[in-house]
Amino acid sequence: MSTLILGIESSCDDTSAAVTEDTKILANIVAGQEVHKNYGGVVPELASRAHQQNIIPVIDQALKQAKIKKNQLDAVAFTRGPGLLGSLLVGTSFAKAFALAADIPIIEVDHLQAHILAHFITGNANQRVPGFPFICLTVSGGHTQIIKVDDPHTFTLLGQTIDDAAGEAFDKAAKIMGLPYPGGPYIDKLAGEGNPLAYKFPKPRIKGLDYSFSGLKTSFLYTVRDKLREDASFIEKEKANLAASIQFTIIDVLLDKLTQAAEMTGISDIALAGGVSANSGLRKALKEKGETKGWNIFIPGFEFTTDNAAMIAIAGYFKYLRNDFASQDITPYTRSNF
Ligand code: KG4
Ligand code: ZN
């Protein structure tokens, strides 16, 4: 018999609900929040208010699209953390109430583990999934981590950023260039028309498998500031080259440590996860690196790179198989459990 899970994601600024049947998606609805656009970043209070408004219609739509009635569901999986407390509380409280009413168990899911387990969502018969153990580079707006995955429940952190996340590096560079928030996708688009070697930014020298991106942002800021003094239209003229150069450097830094991790562990199944894995330059560079290194590369479909509830439902499914359920007194956590 198959297992039907309702997944709920509300950790940041997307309200999402999904219904899965084992590892197959029946519905995956994501409601973004336009309200933050004018503020250059996510405003926590506005995010939780928007989640409150969105959560019922989003869940309703997911169930309708999946053609599943509440009483057919086997469990509700929800994002427990990390994320914004007010936002997490909306999804957590809703999951608890829904499960009580439907008399089904709840399953807590770690958002970062879910990004990784999104690789096990099965779409078509030819789909490859990573073999265990594999290494996953998770790159999002809040996190940059290299993780060894031994099985769907065993994650070991090998390295992480000591300051800004890779997504923040993209977003901050975009902000300096006057691009809208979140700027990652704008940088990606502009980079396609620019020369990645037009500007050189020093790569951070951090020991081991950790990352640092705050120095890169400062060096980008100083370059732009100095050039603007000479020519007020510098950004407008050079935006494609600036975008291509900063993107090239971020990718170079990301792949350097990932390569070290693969070499240290001898693991050759390498996966990418998180919002920044939508970056076309990163996807291409990783594929090329994989060919030269003999790695098996796993890159998520675009709809599973940014936040979505399908990944929460899949992560929940793996826990369901172990009867790993949460109790009604569970509360969210805002920081990564690693
Ligand atoms: O995983 P995610 O949706 O949310 C977090 O959990 O943070 O990641 C959002 C991040 C943002 O920093 C955004 O700029 C970045 O992912 N991003 C991109 C691209 N698409 C999204 N960065 C670079 N290139 C892209 N195409
Ligand atoms: Zn995320």
Kindly describe this structure.
Helix content is 42%, strand content 18%. It has 338 residues and is an alpha/beta fold. It folds into two domains: 4-122 and 304-320, ATPase, nucleotide binding domain (Nucleotidyltransferase, domain 5, 2-Layer Sandwich); 134-300, ATPase, nucleotide binding domain (Nucleotidyltransferase, domain 5), CATH 3.30.420. The strands form two sheets. Strands 3-2-1-4-5 form a five-stranded mixed beta sheet, with helices on both faces. Strand 7 (144-151) and strand 8 (154-160) form a beta hairpin. It is globular and about 65 Å long. The protein binds 5'-O-[(R)-(carboxyoxy)(hydroxy)phosphoryl]adenosine and zinc ion. Zinc ion (ZN) binds at residues 111, 115, 140, 274-275, 307.
In short:
42% of the residues lie in helices and 18% in strands. It is an alpha/beta fold and 338 residues long. The protein has 2 domains: 4-122 and 304-320, Nucleotidyltransferase, domain 5 (2-Layer Sandwich), CATH 3.30.420; 134-300, Nucleotidyltransferase, domain 5, CATH 3.30.420.
How many strands in all? Answer: 10
CA-based shape: globular
Termini, distance in Å? 34 Å
Radius of gyration: 20 Å
Quaternary status = single chain
Helix content: 40-55%
CATH superfamily of the largest domain: ATPase, nucleotide binding domain
Strand content: 15-25%
Which CATH architecture of the largest domain?
2-Layer Sandwich
The tally of structural domains comes to 2
Strand order of the largest sheet: 3-2-1-4-5
List cofactors, ions and other ligands: 5'-O-[(R)-(carboxyoxy)(hydroxy)phosphoryl]adenosine, zinc ion
Output the helix-strand order: EEEHEHEHEEEHHHHEHEH
